[in-house]
Amino acid sequence: MTATDAYDVLVIGGGPAGLSAALNLGRSLMRVLVVDADRPRNAATLNSHGFLTRDGVPPHELRRIARDELGAYPNIEVRTRVRVLELRQEDSGFAASIGRKDPTETVSARSVLLATGLRETLPEVPNLRGFYGITLFSCAACDAWEMRGRRLALIGETRDIADRARLISRWTENLTVFTLGADTVTAAEEAELAASGVAVLRHPISELVGDRGRIEAIRLTDGTIVAVEGGFVRPEWETDVSFLRGFTPALDADGHLVTDRSGRTDVQGLYAAGDAAVPGPQQLIVAAGAGARVASVMVQDAVGIATAH
Description:
By secondary structure, this protein is α/β, with parallel strands linked by helices.
């Protein structure tokens, strides 16, 4: 492996949070390195929504525009299709081993921003991947407008599935919840949903019916067939901290990084932004805003200014 000069900030993750942070750090004369595996969680999404001036833009195009803009700053480097394989603490900050499968380079940085997003696990439903990102989505705020007024499905087996059904029913009067055999909707919740016109079906799904990503129906193991025109799934998410060596920042009960409101973890010099931190709305514009906010805090921390953020 080879070693390079130290950076002021290492940004791990090249999504909206990481790229927004890099832009604002670079404009503050920080020497910044962004390392991005280029495997975004929203890779299956054809168009992203809710981002002012970029509503409907494909996520990959949004990242391309952002990387092009960063190219105007000589103090910002972006390396794609490589990963931080190991991050260690040093007296002066952090050292990171970078490569694809094996480390080929070691870099050091005084501080690190984790903008790695979340690792997503979809419900175990046959042929779900064939519809995901086309007519089945995970983010209501991102995609429900395009689904409004249609016959929709909500597929999931997590404890918050009834709450998600209440949310999605804002966009449709014809919603069916599929719990995949899991006992995660109580009798009281089912009665409340039924009073709002939301059906709850508890049998596992045997097949999603449709063509070229356009879902038409859901077949259950008991033979029931429900016609649908789109819908949402409830994945399970976790933050990947497997590359951290010798230290572990605080995580909440769901495995997400815990930060203060300024993006600081409980490890000195280690920050987090976007979906990697305790999650809020999982929208690109929210992640980008979080990256800009944390960048401002990192600059002020670097010069010893107490921030009110």
